[in-house]
TrEMBL record, chain A:
Domain of life according to the entry: Bacteria
Taxonomic source organism: Silvibacterium bohemicum
Protein name, as recorded: Putative anti-sigma-YlaC factor YlaD
Length: 96, 210
């Protein structure tokens, strides 16, 4: 069922908010939504959600792992490496 | 009002965020040949990005460090298979996401195991603001405040929010990673943003007057 323009005009806040995920994902021009022209509450909600999405993109990777992480990685690599070397040394020679 | 203009869809945002790094190509090639120093260089170049991702997805320093370690160990084992079809950081990033998701599944966290359990309880969900007089966010939420609010999201919401809004993955990619539907990913993202708004507004109200 499609929503006509007059349906949208009389949309309640609950109905509008139910459609919000779909509206955001469609990247439609939300300012054209009739409901937002008359409902300050939903207009504020839309502005906030857009603001949150914009700010999230600015969250840069700022945390560094402790130096102990590299120490553990290095140890594990050395252990794996020596294990592989042992396995190769113990491998029976291939007969021609 | 910022709703006046439809924002263009960011295409593969995580790729745009991964510009080539000086010296990376050489380090990759050398690491593929077994050069331990080169692998250390790759770690130095990417540790912050990988660890930040783990920390944001998990919200726990000890687990984030363990999984950073695991991600780089997997990188060490798999680096020879990197063919350069995508940016190295994109490839490594996806590897790290998979490590975190695997960990969460092993832990049996319901938020990532089944589609319906991606839905936190109703109390965690957004509320309709019908009849309420809402205050708009001030527009000056700083990074630390937002980081803290993201940490306080329920895990299911946090995963989708971090993957989509912070890391720039598309819904089809997230659906694939979390083994849920695209619709579910979209719905979770919306609920996450609603919950964040709640958390941020509550935080704003708690701020002491100066």
């Amino acid at each position: 069922m499609t929503t006509t323009r007059s349906d949208r005009k009389t949309m309640t806040c609950a109905e509008f908010q139910d459609r919000l995920p779909e509206l955001f994902e469609s990247h439609a021009d939300l300012s054209a939504e009739e409901h937002l022209k008359t409902c300050e509450n939903c207009a504020a909600l839309v502005r906030d959600l857009e603001y949150i999405a914009q700010q999230a993109k600015l969250l840069l990777p700022i945390h560094d792992p402790s130096p102990a992480v590299w120490d553990k990685i290095e140890n594990a690599i050395q252990t794996e490496g020596s294990g592989q070397e042992r396995a190769e040394a113990n491998r029976p020679p291939v007969r021609a | 009002m910022s709703t006046g203009q439809a924002a263009p869809k960011p295409v593969h945002q995580h790729m745009r965020r991964n510009p080539p790094i000086a010296g990376e190509a050489e380090a990759i090639q050398a690491a593929q040949g077994g050069d331990a120093r080169a692998f250390e260089t790759l770690y130095a170049l990417h540790k912050r990005r990988v660890y930040s991702l783990c920390l944001r997805m998990l919200g726990n320093v000890a687990e984030a460090e363990d999984l950073t370690q695991e991600a780089f160990l997997q990188l060490y084992r798999k680096i020879a298979t990197f063919r350069g079809d995508s940016a190295f950081s994109t490839w490594l990033h996806r590897l790290a996401v998979n490590v975190v998701l695997m960990h969460l599944r092993k832990k049996g966290l319901p938020q990532v195991s089944l589609e319906e359990t991606l839905e936190p309880s109703q109390e965690d969900g957004p509320r309709k603001d019908i009849g309420a007089r809402d205050l708009m966010l001030s527009g000056s939420i700083d990074r630390v405040t937002l980081e803290r609010a993201v940490e306080n999201l329920p895990p299911g919401y946090r995963l989708v929010f971090v993957l989509h809004d912070v890391e720039g993955y598309e819904h089809n990619e997230i659906a694939d990673m979390l083994a849920c539907s695209i619709g579910n990913s979209k719905s979770q993202l919306h609920k996450a943003r609603m919950k964040l708004r709640d958390l941020l507004r509550t935080g704003e109200r708690k701020e002491p007057a100066v």
